[in-house]
């Protein structure tokens, strides 16, 4: 990394704009940054740091997000800005940063805050121009950090070497050194390893404890299942031997549970035998009790049968008389049926004779039948008259239909005649609309051809008006671009002339003693030309040339644009002519309205033609209807005459057939009713005579049947006869007596029942109680056996689960042991870590050893070979080891602590340490070359000889093409270091002055 230029505006103590040309200062290799206390020497370094990282070192950042960086001497309208130009990783970059700025509002009173701004540009050597890369704070910060390979803290320690910090580093303890080295070398990953191992240890320990807790939970469940047969170990989760103790206790509990199960099996077998015996005794007692009660019940039933023996014999006699009367039953039923039929026939005959005329009231069946035959013959004669009457009704309806048709045809003829009278007028009206629509369609076609030219001319007129304004604007832009190009060319020529005047100083800057001059060839250069104030270099001339070329290109573009606009204006004017746009728009609107109107009229052509065709079809239809109505009227005259003749004949025939009735139908109804009454009366008379004969025959057969059955009279036989219900009831009583008598005799004849009756009375309740006691004892024994079996099964299941858990926890316990050992070793608390050195401290110790080796190379030269810095990993007191730093004195051969060095010795030792640290951190950051370093203070503590040696070491850095800036107010350094950057403070703020540069 090499710094080229720094521009500061309103930053820190600098109220106005200040510039630092590091290229001039670095040409000597060693330059001095000096000034009185408080002038702003450190602020120059702060500006470099702020340009790179957007913040200043340490506590100087302050609060307010960069608001405190603004100079109190700056004018109100001047914004704070820092611009740094540098080369890093072969790329020339320019970084511009503006912190937040509280400025007055543009309108009204008060202030407003503008946000911070950042720009990053890169110089393109091919095009010799700056190219914008980004304006994002985050992107620029990431880009710079990646290119430099170090953070802000590393940069402040490596590039801005603060000697006071390194003096404290020499005297600090291991903890303070560790914090500084940790920030510089970014050993957070090793600290993360320590934290990761510690977290892994806590995680595995928690998992082991969780597994032990689950194991203890299983043990508690086993204790609940086993009861007092199991004792739990007095161990907590995570204690050693917990798993073995739990498994041992589980094994003892399983053995005890199996012994208890065997005892319960024996007790269950005995209880089952006792219960089976009690059940047998209970069954025997119940059977004896049943037989004794059966015998007693049979004796009681036999006594009741003896009491009802007389009733049984009376029922048998009643059943016998009923069987004899059953032989007379058919004759009785026949006589009752004949009597019922005779009474019904007599009633029907009396009812049928009531409507008859008195002359036929006493007639016999034969007389009534003859009268009915005469009425039927008369009814047959009236059937032809009935058909004639129906035909007469049809004729009347047919004549009415002819009258209706006549009236309808008259209406059709009158309507057709009226419509046809107006036909010519209707046809003329419709034909007129058709002609008007055809004319409108022709006109619409003509107007459609005129629309497009009128529309194009109107569009051209509007474009002509718009291009007129555009032409004026393009002319003004072309004139302005031409003026800018002339001004840019004049500025470029002025700068070119100024550079030619100062070209001698530019050539002299490259002169070297002993090397021939490229102009005159001389090898000695006693008085080379110096650059005057405001010297113009090649870059300024090239920038002016580029600006002129860009302005000239813009001028050419503006002229080309003006020409294109003028050509478009001429084309539009040729199309539109000189007519005003408003008049063309009005003409176009009139044309459009007429076109719309004619199209609307023409759109009715089809409808009018269709209406004319419909009217012609209707005229033809009405004429045909009128002619057809006249034909139908003529044909109806003959039909009417035929109907009138037939009607007269039928009316004469019906008058003779009706007689005194209103109609033939009425006369036929009278005759039909009379024939029906006569027929009904004749049938009823014959039925009554037949029923009387059947009744007489039934009485004779009944008397004969009763005598043969043994009854004196038919009435006695009727009384002895049983109906179905009485017969079934009597038979049921007789059957029940027989069944009960047989059952009683069978029970009394049973041998086992009689034997049981002779034995002592049975006691089934006592046997029931004994069986219940035996069943209770059996259930208790079975419950005890089931509980013992469940206990064994539960203990087996929990033991198997505990064994599986112990096996599953074994790898986790091994992992926890291994992780805990590694975590303790990395944390420095393990007994195996003899020096109690943490992993991060171990890495930092290696880095410190590298720093000590790199610092010794310069410390030997600064101390004339006396002192050497060495790293020590010994422990100090009870603290941890690894970050000790000692100095070896070659004069005494003793190694002692760096805190014993004197003030001057401490300075050049810390300087050597800072330079060594810069080399190591540079290599750690990926080998980024640091071509510019700053050393802040500490030179006042050196004597002249030591100061010369220190300056020689710093001057030797030029061998690696480095430039070193010394920040000091020591007056002697101003004589020794020629290239100087002086900070001059004043009431209006500090200013920068460069001295001793070419």
Report what the structure shows.
Helices cover 68% and strands 10% of the residues. It is built from 25 helices and 17 strands. A 6-stranded antiparallel β-sheet has the order 2-1-4-5-8-9. A 6-stranded mixed β-sheet has the order 10-14-15-3-16-17, with helices on both faces. It is flat, with a radius of gyration of 72 Å. The mean pLDDT is 77.
In short:
The chain has 998 residues and is of the alpha+beta class.
Classify the secondary structure makeup into a structural class: alpha+beta
Report, as a whole number of angstroms, the end-to-end distance: 22 Å
Widest beta sheet: strand line-up: 2-1-4-5-8-9
Number of strands: 17
How many helices? The count is 25
Please indicate the percent range of residues in DSSP E strands (runs of 2 or more): 5-15%
Q: Give the integer mean of the pLDDT values.
A: 77
Shape: flat
Helix content: 55-70%
The biggest beta sheet reads: 6 strands, antiparallel
Runs in which pLDDT lies below 50 for 5 or more consecutive residues are none
User: C-alpha Rg, in Å?
Assistant: 72 Å
């Amino acid at each position: 990394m090499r710094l080229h230029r720094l521009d500061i505006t309103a930053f820190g103590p600098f109220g106005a704009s200040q510039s630092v040309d590091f290229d001039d200062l670095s040409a000597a290799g060693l330059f001095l940054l000096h000034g009185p206390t408080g002038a702003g020497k450190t602020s120059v370094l702060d500006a470099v740091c702020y340009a790179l990282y957007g913040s200043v070192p340490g506590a100087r950042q302050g609060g307010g997000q960069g608001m405190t960086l603004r100079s109190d001497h700056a004018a109100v309208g001047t914004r704070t800005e820092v611009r740094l130009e540098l080369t890093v990783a072969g790329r020339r970059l320019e970084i511009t940063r503006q912190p937040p700025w509280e400025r007055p509002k543009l309108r009204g009173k008060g202030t407003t805050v503008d946000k911070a701004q950042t720009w990053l540009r890169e110089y393109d050597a091919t095009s010799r121009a700056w190219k914008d890369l980004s304006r994002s704070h985050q992107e620029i910060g990431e880009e710079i950090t990646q290119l430099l390979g170090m953070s802000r803290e590393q940069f402040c320690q490596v590039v801005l070497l603060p000697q006071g910090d390194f003096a404290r580093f020499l005297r600090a303890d291991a903890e303070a050194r560790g914090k500084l080295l940790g920030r510089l070398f970014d050993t957070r990953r090793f600290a993360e390893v320590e934290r990761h191992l510690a977290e892994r240890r806590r995680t595995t320990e928690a998992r082991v404890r969780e597994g032990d807790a689950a194991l203890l939970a299983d043990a508690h469940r086993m204790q609940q299942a086993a009861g007092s047969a199991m004792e739990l170990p007095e161990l907590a989760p995570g204690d050693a031997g917990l798993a073995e103790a739990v498994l041992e206790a589980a094994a003892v509990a399983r053995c005890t549970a199996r012994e208890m199960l065997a005892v319960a099996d024996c007790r269950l077998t005995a209880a089952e035998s006792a219960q089976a015996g009690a059940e047998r005794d209970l069954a025997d007692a119940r059977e004896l009790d049943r037989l004794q009660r059966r015998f007693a019940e049979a004796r009681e039933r036999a006594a009741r049968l003896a009491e009802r023996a007389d009733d049984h014999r009376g029922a048998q006699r009643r059943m016998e008389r009923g069987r004899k009367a059953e032989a007379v039953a058919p004759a009785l039923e026949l006589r009752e049926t004949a009597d019922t039929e005779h009474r019904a026939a007599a009633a029907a005959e009396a009812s049928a004779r009531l409507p008859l005329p008195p002359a036929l009231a006493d007639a016999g069946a034969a007389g009534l039948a003859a009268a009915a035959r005469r009425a039927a013959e008369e009814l047959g004669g009236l059937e032809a008259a009935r058909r004639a009457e129906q035909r007469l009704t049809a004729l009347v309806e047919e004549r009415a239909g002819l009258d209706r048709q006549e009236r309808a045809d008259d209406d059709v003829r009158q309507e057709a005649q009226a419509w046809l009278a107006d036909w010519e007028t209707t046809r003329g009206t419709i034909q007129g609309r058709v002609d008007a629509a055809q004319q409108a369609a022709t006109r619409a076609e003509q107007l459609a051809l005129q629309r497009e030219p009128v529309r194009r001319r109107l569009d051209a007129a509007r474009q002509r008006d718009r291009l007129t304004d555009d032409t004026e604007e393009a002319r003004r832009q072309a004139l302005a671009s031409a003026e800018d190009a002339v001004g840019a060319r004049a500025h470029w020529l002025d700068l070119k002339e100024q550079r030619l005047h100062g070209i001698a100083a530019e050539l002299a800057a490259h002169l070297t003693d002993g090397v021939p001059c490229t102009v005159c060839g001389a090898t000695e250069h006693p008085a080379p030309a110096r650059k005057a104030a405001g010297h113009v270099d090649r870059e300024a001339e090239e920038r002016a040339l580029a600006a002129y070329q860009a302005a000239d290109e813009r001028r050419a573009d503006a002229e080309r644009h003006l020409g294109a606009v003028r050509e478009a204006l001429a084309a539009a004017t040729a199309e539109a002519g000189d007519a005003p746009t408003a008049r063309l728009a009005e003409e176009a609107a009139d044309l459009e309205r007429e076109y719309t109107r004619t199209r609307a009229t023409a759109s009715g052509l089809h409808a009018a033609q269709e209406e004319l065709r419909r009217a012609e079809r209707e005229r033809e239809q009405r004429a045909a209807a009128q002619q057809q109505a006249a034909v139908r009227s003529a044909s109806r005259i003959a039909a009417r005459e035929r109907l009138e003749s037939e009607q007269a004949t039928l009316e004469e025939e019906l008058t003779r057939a009706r007689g005194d009735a209103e109609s033939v139908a009425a006369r036929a109804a009278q005759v039909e009713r009379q024939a029906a009454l006569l027929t009904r009366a004749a049938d009823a008379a014959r039925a009554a005579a037949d029923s009387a004969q059947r009744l007489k025959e039934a009485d004779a057969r009944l008397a004969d049947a009763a005598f043969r059955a043994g009854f004196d009279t038919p009435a006695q036989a009727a009384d002895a006869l049983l109906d179905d219900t009485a017969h079934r009831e009597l038979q049921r009583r007789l059957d029940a007596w027989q069944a009960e008598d047989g059952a009683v005799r069978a029970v009394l004849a049973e041998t086992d029942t009689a034997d049981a009756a002779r034995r002592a009375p049975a006691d089934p309740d006592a046997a029931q109680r004994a069986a219940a006691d035996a069943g209770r004892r059996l259930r208790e024994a079975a419950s005890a056996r089931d509980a013992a079996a469940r206990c064994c099964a539960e203990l087996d299941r929990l033991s198997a689960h505990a064994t599986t858990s112990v096996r599953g926890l074994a790898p986790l316990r091994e992992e926890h042991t291994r992780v805990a050992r590694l975590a303790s070793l990395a944390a420095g608390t393990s007994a195996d870590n003899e020096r109690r050195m943490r992993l991060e401290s171990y890495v930092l110790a290696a880095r410190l050893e590298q720093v000590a080796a790199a610092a010794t190379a310069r410390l030997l030269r600064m101390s004339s070979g006396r002192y050497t810095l060495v790293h020590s990993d010994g422990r100090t007191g009870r603290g941890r080891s690894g970050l000790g730093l000692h100095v070896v004195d070659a004069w005494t051969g003793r190694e002692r602590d760096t805190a014993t060095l004197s003030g001057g010795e401490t300075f050049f030792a810390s300087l050597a340490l800072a330079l060594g640290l810069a080399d190591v951190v540079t290599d750690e950051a990926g080998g980024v070359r640091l071509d510019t370093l700053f050393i802040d203070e500490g030179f006042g503590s050196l004597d002249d000889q030591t100061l010369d040696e220190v300056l020689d070491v710093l001057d030797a850095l030029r061998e690696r093409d480095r430039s070193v800036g010394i920040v000091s107010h020591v007056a002697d350094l101003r004589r020794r270091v020629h290239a100087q950057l002086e900070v001059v403070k004043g009431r209006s703020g500090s200013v920068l002055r460069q001295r001793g540069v070419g």
